[in-house]
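step: validate -> pass
step: tokenize input -> pass
step: predict -> running
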Amino acid sequence: MDSIVVVKLGGSVLESPQGFADSSLNLSEKFVENGVLPIIVVSAMKGVTDLLLEAARGSYSALDHVESTYMGLARELGSTVLERTIMAELRAARRLLEASKAPIKPETIDAVVSLGERLSRIAMEHYLVYAGLRGVGFDARSLIVTNRMHGDALIIEGITRNRVQVLLKAASKGLVPVIEGFVGSTPEGAATTLGRGGSDYTATVLAKLLRLKEVYLVSDVDGVYSIDPSIDREAVLVPRLSLREAMAASAFRVKGFNRKTFLPLQGTSIIVNVGSWNKFGTRISGLHGHGKGKGLKILAHKSTRKGARIGVIGCTAKASDVKRILEITDSEGFSVDQVVYSSGSPLTSILVSARHYSKSLEPLLRRIHREVLLRGSSRG
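step: predict -> pass
step: emit ->
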């Protein structure tokens, strides 16, 4: 039997009719024609989730914008069937909102916000035909079972395992299964969402439960970078990450990873390939020895109530690296309230005092990136 993989399509590659068409062709050329059968996990089109959140708060103009965005997909294909299906889903969302009383319930918000992924799944089924593939859609609400934490749900793997086997059966027959990411339902059937970046989490859970070997996370960026390229143009692709390093990166939302994304992969040999249709530049795995190498790998940061937390990711951090980072931080006029460092840990965490957080962090981050991460990598 041909090999089967999970391929998650991010919103950045599904932002237009051309994006759906290109993704369908790439699925055919890069996977199917090479004897690799994909199980596809789709995200909402870029920007749609934010619009649906606005709609859940009472903005009907936001829902109108969602309608025009997805109807554009149907018109580009010339599919009246797709048009009717999209309109039916949107009418159901409007009726749900009209019947809801303030304050709107969390389960109602999830039911509305999950519409973006659902419409992407419905549209992708039609676009796969464009590429000569036999796509078949599966409603995530009937397969992915979660706890009742609306907005940030956790997948219940024990119940979900049996339900998702239908995806494997479909792929084994040469079909191309399509399912929403980011979406599930409680055991009682109420819609849930998995949190920002939750489609990646859906993809890794499916790979684990179906005992597959690889996951591909597709976006418009070639992989994970050593720092956000918008902060430093000298950012470089990180070719390999250990699972522990990837989990540390997800805690800082590096590349938008949901913090739950890599948890299902613990104790497995599954490889996650991160990149674009042009290049999958980063490989992540929990295999022994994968990702090992000299030098630190990623510099990230996030806001907290206490200040800015800077994360230096890489299992080879040395005390001398931390000392140099603190020297740079001091020379840039910032004070440090806390340092968490342990030899061999995938994460070194530095809390910059809130007293100085009004200053831009970008010059500080650029210096640390260039003088510690990049120089350390060149030494290694």
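step: describe -> The CA atoms of residues 295 and 375 lie 8 Å apart.
step: cleanup -> pass
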